[in-house]
Amino acid sequence: MIIDVHAHVFAWPKRGSTRGGTFMSMEQQIEVMNRKGVDKAVILPIVSPETPCEQQSLGEILYICEKYPGRFIPFCNMDPRLPRLPEKITVDDFLPLLEECRKLGFKGIGEMTPRMPWDDPGLNALFAAAEKVGFPITFHTITADVDSYGIIDEIGLPKFEKVLQRFPKLVFLGHSPGFWSEISGDVSAANKNGYPNGPVKPGGRLIDLLRKYPALNGDLSAGSGFNSLARDPAHAWRFMDEFQDRLLLGLDYCSIKNNMQHIEWLTDALKKQNISQAVYEKITWRNANRLLDLGLE
């Protein structure tokens, strides 16, 4: 069993992204899954206007899941910027919506990409509702100086830590260069939102947060998640062993032209006995099965 916890899948992709071309169609996604040996993939709808692709309705996500039964796991998503002042937004603005999504079969929220700070009142009201409903949240984070999408923080993730403290039962799946660069103690303004090279240095803020907050998990998708491991394999073996219950395989194919090597890299690590069979299975599907309450055996 292999579960990809980070996929962007469209029923009828039409508008090209700012990066060129459209995102993946459901047919293209199935082709990639079959080629890579992926049994199921979590669909993360895009709703915030900052993100460089088409926005999606929840109905489109459910249509894709119905079209290919058993292959996709639906996440819902919503932009926390409701048409009112942020300080007037409360948990009750989001709770009925999330409860309805749960009844419809959605398993979480994400990928959350709004360009707003972690301490925004509206964003925190959504977090409170998600914690009540029991929905995990997959997020993308950046720093304010970057002209891009993502929840805004600083080096060291201080704003995010306050959210972890405020919502201790809310399961987070961390993603993006701004998240994974913090695995190393030498993160700087120059490499915070990129793909740092070289050995992982002691003192990484991410290591500290994972040790302190049991509801925090790592989504290993995209170049950022892969780079956090491949840049320093010796560190990766120790990291995966320590946090074997908190790491989840993701691919993040945004284009059919991508060539994500996560599964091949993990399989090679298992073959060479750099990681155990138990660690491999937890990362590739068992952790997703548990956190998303999929009931697979």
Secondary-structure map:
Layout: E1 3-7, E2 9-10, E3 24-25, H1 26-36, E4 40-43, H2 58-67, E5 72-74, H3 95-103, E6 109-112, H4 121-133, E7 137-143, E8 151-153, H5 158-166, E9 172-175, H6 177-180, H7 205-212, E10 216-219, H8 222-230, H9 233-242, E11 247-248, H10 262-271, H11 277-291
Helix pairs in contact: 3-4
Key words describing this protein structure:
three-stranded parallel sheet; 11 strands; about 35% helix; about 300 residues; 11 helices; TIM Barrel
Account of the 3D structure:
The structure is a single chain. By secondary structure, the chain is of the alpha/beta class. It has a single domain, classed as Metal-dependent hydrolases (TIM Barrel, Alpha-Beta Barrel). The protein has eleven helices and eleven strands. The chain has helices at residues 26-36, 58-67, 95-103, 121-133, 158-166, 177-180, 205-212, 222-230, 233-242, 262-271, 277-291, and strands at 3-7, 9-10, 24-25, 40-43, 72-74, 109-112, 137-143, 151-153, 172-175, 216-219, 247-248. The strands form three sheets. Strands 6, 7, 8, 9, 10 and 11 form a six-stranded parallel sheet that branches. The radius of gyration is 18 Å and the shape is globular. The termini are close together. The model has no long low-confidence stretch (mean pLDDT 95).
Could you give a quick summary of the protein structure above?
By secondary structure, the chain is an alpha/beta fold. It is 36% helix and 13% strand. Helix 3 (95-103) packs parallel to helix 4.
